[in-house]
Amino acid sequence: MSVVHVLLSGGIGSRLWPLSRKQQPKQYLDLFNGQSLFGLTVQRNAKIADEIIVVGNKDNAHLSEKAMIHGGLPYRSIVEATPRNTAAAIAFAAFAVNTEDILIVTPSDHMISGDEAYESAMKAGVAKAKEGFIVTFGIQPTRPETGYGYIEFDGDKVKSFREKPNQDTAEDFIERGTFLWNSGMFCFQASVFLEELKKYEPSVYDAAKLAWESAEEGKLNTELSLQIPSISVDYAVMERSKKIRVVPTEFEWSDLGSFEALYDYLVASGYPKDENGNIVIGTDKFAGFVGLKNTIFVHTKDAFLMVQKEKSQDVKKIYNMLEKHQSKLLD
């Protein structure tokens, strides 16, 4: 029985446009003391896992390969021909290993601080996975965040999963004290996950299995991949299985999924800001802010973005508009 770290690296990070692009998603940006979120995630889990499987897409597989070679760690690669969401991505990894192997599934674009607390949580998850449970890791909430999903819990039992709430509901969750942020990290035995996927989403299981069996050197066939229903692992398994357990964690965590989250991380790390809380990312040129507070100015070679910290979730609207017009600014 091996412990395998499954690294999901297919995300685009659209809410961090224009820093994050299709050809250079946020997990590969060297914004963190010269390191990337991808590299930090690999390092963090190398202490726990016996093996690494990177699941990505054909557009950025070369970036994960470059990062893994730089890190000097052996790994296996699964290259998706087209994005089919997390249920299929995790299924491919489960098909690729021995049935009794334990998978620790993580995104590649989250920031985590506290190595000892992280290692302790993962070991607790592996222990529960060996008992036949599907484990999710819950983050202790520090504020009424509307950008995250929530887990309602009692001990290690999951009472419910909740979608991203509005502000009033998020405040209620915090007051009740029985909710955790959903980290999007999981741990389970390969066979247990596949059994539950087959039980609750047989069409995803069957199509993913067929695509995997036809893969060549870890590269999936486009035509067969398009037959796989696109559904998240949360909807497919986590919210329906009776085998779910949660490990409440103690480490610091952020999905860095918005400029607000990136701003908070950078400022906490000593990044320069002016007297009104404004910051500049991407250039050393002077930028003056008049009448603005907590504003983020992002500079890239072909685009500028100015966004108020509190409105950073709305960057996705700009991304969607550019996508609608098939703009090259997304590449």
Question: Could you characterize the architecture of this molecule?
Answer:
By secondary structure, the protein is an alpha/beta fold. The protein has 11 helices and 14 strands. α1 crosses α2, α3 packs across α6 and α6 crosses α7.
Highlighted features:
single chain, 331 residues, alpha/beta, 9-stranded mixed β-sheet, 14 strands, globular
Number of strands: 14
Percent of residues in beta strands: 15-25%
Radius of gyration using CA atoms only: 20 Å
The DSSP helix count reads 11
Q: What string, H for helix and E for strand, traces the elements in order?
A: EHEHEHEEHEEEHEHHHHEEHEEEH
Q: Specify the biggest β-sheet.
A: 9 strands, mixed
The structure class reads alpha/beta
What gap, in angstroms, lies between the N and C termini?
41 Å
Helix residue percentage = 25-40%
The average pLDDT value, as a whole number, equals: 94
Low-confidence stretches: none
What general form does the structure show?
A: globular
Task: Compose a concise summary of this entry.
This protein has helices at residues 37-46, 61-71, 85-96, 115-130, 167-176, 190-200, 202-213, 222-225, 233-238, 259-268, 315-324, and strands at residues 3-8, 51-57, 76-80, 102-107, 111-113, 134-139, 150-154, 157-162, 179-189, 244-248, 252-254, 279-281, 295-299, 304-308. It is α/β, with parallel strands linked by helices and 331 residues long.
